[in-house]
Amino acid sequence: GAGVSQSPRYKVAKRGQDVALRCDPISGHVSLFWYQQALGQGPEFLTYFQNEAQLDKSGLPSDRFFAERPEGSVSTLKIQRTQQEDSAVYLCASSLPGAPEAFFGQGTRLTVV
Amino acid sequence: AQKITQTQPGMFVQEKEAVTLDCTYDTSDQSYGLFWYKQPSSGEMIFLIYQGSYDEQNATEGRYSLNFQKARKSANLVISASQLGDSAMYFCAMREALYRTSLRAQKLVFGQGTRLTINP
Question: Nearest CA of chain A to the CA of B85: how many Å?
Answer without folding.
Answer: 18
